[in-house]
Design brief:
Elements: E1 2-4, E2 12-13, E3 25-27, E4 33-41, E5 45-50, E6 64-74, E7 82-83, E8 87-92, E9 103-107, E10 117-118, E11 131-138, E12 143-145, E13 151-152, E14 160-169, E15 178-180, E16 184-189
Amino acid sequence: PNIIGPTTPATICDGGIIATDLDITVTGGAGTPTYTWFEVSPNPQQLYQGPISFYNPGILSPDGTYEYKVEVDYDGEGCDIAPSTITQVVVMPDPTADPILNDQEVCEQTPSSAAMLEVLNPSLGISNTYNYQWWQTSPGTPIIVGGNSPNYTPATSSAGTFTYECVITNDPSSADCEYTTNTHTLIVEPSPEVDELPNQNAT
């Protein structure tokens, strides 16, 4: 038999799963084939043996280069075991960035009196195109705030203590390229109130 492949999957991030299985095309051979998949490096081992031609290694961690091959063995007379070429799965480190502002304390005010939060110097991942999703993580259930931007200015229209984080990702989501910044704590103090003075006009 003659083997074409295995297919070369797209690069993923640490903890990701390849979106498309490793697979081959086989021509020739007689009888019923048995497929035996191997990890060649970094941990040489047999991974699967059976009637299915494709294989997915699942979650890959840590980052690095993982190599795989398959052998096809037909049970027909005179058929030798046919080895494939080696294919690589490249696993990159997750994105990262400089820490965002750690905390601030401001007065209740509209428009916002808070300093803008900024994600600076994003790097790593599988591309230099990053998606940004800001979250208000407390109080209560986390909610999405802001748009797809490295900058976000929290609202200060209500007094209280609020926390924020930004999740940085690369597309596609299947690559699992994701990083969550440190938490920013915003304390919004109530606006000062001035009691109205009594009328002091002389009569």
